[in-house]
Design a protein that fits this description.
mainly alpha; 2 domains; rod-shaped; Syntaxin-3; receptor; Syntaxin; Syntaxin/epimorphin_CS
């Protein structure tokens, strides 16, 4: 409404100025006593130039206003949705890596002595998951900080940001929980393989004893007392290899422990809003898209209306100027 009023005010000003010029020119009897017809003609032409200059300037201002409206309404949220999309892509990548990790776990567990390349591939995937998980965690915490800073302002944009942040936080917790479960499962199955190999050598161990051996980090504890037995080199190598796998797993789990706590607390603090968040987001996005379309149409129609009004006034100014020129020439010839 403000821009429409502003445009109307400009047009009214233009019309008043043109009218004043016309009144001054269209009194040939008064002007014929004070100036020549050449002066009257120049004055009429001046009114035409003035009308065109004002109309051109008004049209340029109208275009600038439209650009300013579009930038103000979309720039900030475009940047936010760009961050959301980047975070979503990283979470999806973690999920894809997780499936590959599970596949490699199965390959390693099915082979008495896994190939070094398989373990290297698993190590690379683990590193990539930790890298992307840290990136997602930092992004979510940064979003949360900005949301808390804007908490005093209640707006549709703020609600959208909260909803999107909540959805991504929950998805991140879900995928990282699955990753943690895959690691724990791999550890338990590797421990079972070690226990079976020890039983083959005649060395029986309880779960508690095996856990103590694993926590010590010393593979010599597994082979002490059985070096002189008939255990094959293959079985001994498998025991040592499984033990190293478990040590690496425990190191990875410890590195991600703080991240699990941070994100779990983040989701827990969001409370019941998570229950219906996806539905709310879908409705919110639909409303936002409709509002943006309606705003664009309104701005477009407003601009068209202003331009039409400007064109009409320019035509009027031209006609008035020509009329004044004709009258002035007529008086001059007389």
């Amino acid at each position: 409404m403000f821009f429409i009023f502003l445009g109307s005010a400009d047009c009214i000003l233009l019309a008043v100025m043109a009218y004043d010029r016309f009144v001054a020119i269209c009194h040939p009897l008064r002007y014929s006593l004070r100036m020549s017809w050449q002066r009257c003609a120049r004055l009429a032409l001046g009114s035409l130039v003035l009308g065109f200059i004002l109309a051109t300037q008004l049209t340029q201002d109208d275009d600038a206003d439209e650009v300013e409206i579009a930038v103000d309404n979309t720039a900030f949220m475009d940047e936010f949705f760009s961050e959301i999309e980047e975070t979503r892509v990283n979470i999806d990548k973690i999920s894809e890596h997780l499936e590959e990790v599970k596949r490699l776990h199965s390959v390693i567990l099915s082979a008495p002595i896994p190939e070094p390349k398989t373990k290297d591939d698993l190590e690379q995937l683990t590193t990539e998951i930790k890298k992307k998980a840290n990136n997602v965690r930092n992004k979510l915490k940064s979003m949360e900080k900005h949301i808390e800073e804007d908490e005093v302002r209640s707006s549709a944009d703020l609600r959208i940001r909260k909803s999107q942040h909540s959805v991504l936080s929950r998805k991140f917790v879900e995928v990282m929980t699955k990753y943690n479960e895959a690691q724990v499962d791999f550890r338990e199955r590797s421990k079972g393989r070690i226990q079976r190999q020890l039983e083959i050598t005649g060395k029986k161990t309880t779960d508690e004893e095996l856990e103590e051996m694993l926590e010590s980090g010393n593979s010599a504890l597994f082979t002490s007392g059985i070096i002189d037995s008939q255990i094959s080199k293959q079985a001994l190598s498998e025991i040592e290899g499984r033990h190293k796998d478990i040590v690496r797993l425990e190191s990875s789990i410890k590195e991600l422990h703080d991240m699990f706590i941070d994100i779990a607390m983040l989701v827990e603090n969001q409370g019941e809003m998570l229950d219906n968040i996806e539905l709310n987001v879908m409705h919110t996005v639909d409303h936002v898209e409709k509002a943006q379309e309606e705003t664009k149409r309104a701005v477009k129609y407003q601009g068209q209306a202003r331009k039409k009004l400007v064109i009409i006034i320019v035509i009027v100014v031209v006609l008035l100027g020509l009329l004044a020129l004709i009258i002035g020439l007529s008086v001059g010839l007389k």
